[in-house]
């Protein structure tokens, strides 16, 4: 197997600090590098639909919530792990583009719900199809069995942080 830039970093630490087991830096460094590559690739895909990653996430979250494709702003920012200010900005942008609208919350007279418009539903359906094609392309370097193992290991790490 060929080496990557992280191998060079690990070799430098081994040379400079042979007393340290820097192997976890290899895993974390590769995940960080992959995160940047993934963000760029996904952004390139969703930008074809005049969306950024955050806006795509909001629309996708509403879409996968199922009919009637609506959630409270609190449910949205909890699902997406962003601040309420960030969520408000995203919703404002999507509302201006007529992809979502704010409606009175049917269960709380004081609240609002965010609902996909027909235009938003059509757009996210097309964007998520392109996103899935891109995801298959991204993972094409791995065999199916490798993808399953990677998914299990990543799930284990996520659970350890979010438990």
Gist?
The chain has 163 residues and is mainly alpha-helical.
Give an overview of the whole structure.
It is a single chain. The protein has 163 residues and is mainly alpha-helical. The chain has a single domain (44-162), classed as Arc Repressor Mutant, subunit A, CATH 1.10.10. Helices cover 67% and strands 7% of the residues. The chain contains seven helices and three strands. It has helices at residues 5-16, 23-47, 53-64, 73-80, 84-96, 118-138, 144-162; strands spanning 70-71, 100-104, 112-116. Strands 1-3-2 form a three-stranded antiparallel beta sheet. Helix 3 (53-64) crosses helix 6 (118-138). The longest helix has 25 residues, at 23-47. The two termini are 35 Å apart.
Largest sheet, described in full? 3 strands, antiparallel
CATH superfamily: Winged helix-like DNA-binding domain superfamily/Winged helix DNA-binding domain
**How many E strands?**
3
What order do the strands of the largest sheet run in, or round the barrel if closed? 1-3-2
Q: What's the mean pLDDT score?
A: 94
Element order: H for helix, E for strand: HHHEHHEEHH
CATH top-level class? Mainly Alpha
- Count of all domains: 1
Q: Which regions have little confidence, pLDDT < 50, spanning 5+ residues? A: none
Shape: elongated
Structural class: mainly alpha
Strand content: 5-15%
The tally of helices reads 7
User: What is the end-to-end distance?
Assistant: 35 Å
Into which percent range does the helicity of residues fall? 55-70%
Q: Under the CATH scheme, which architecture would be assigned?
A: Orthogonal Bundle
Q: The CATH topology is what? A: Arc Repressor Mutant, subunit A
Radius of gyration: 20 Å
């Amino acid at each position: 197997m060929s080496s990557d830039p992280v191998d060079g970093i690990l070799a430098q630490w081994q040379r400079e600090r042979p007393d340290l087991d820097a192997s976890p830096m290899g895993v974390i460094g590769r995940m960080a590098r992959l995160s940047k590559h993934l963000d760029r690739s996904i952004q390139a895909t969703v930008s074809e639909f005049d969306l950024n990653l955050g806006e795509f996430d909001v629309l996708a979250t509403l879409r996968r919530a199922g009919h009637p494709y609506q959630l409270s702003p609190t449910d949205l920012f909890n699902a997406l792990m962003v601040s309420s200010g960030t969520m408000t900005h995203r919703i404002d942008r999507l509302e201006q583009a007529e992809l979502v609208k704010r409606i009175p919350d049917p269960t709380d007279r004081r609240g609002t719900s965010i609902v996909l418009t027909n235009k938003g539903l059509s757009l996210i359906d097309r964007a998520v199809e392109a996103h899935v094609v891109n995801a298959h392309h991204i993972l094409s370097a791995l065999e199916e069995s490798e993808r399953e193992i990677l998914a299990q290991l990543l799930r284990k790490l996520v659970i350890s942080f979010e438990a």
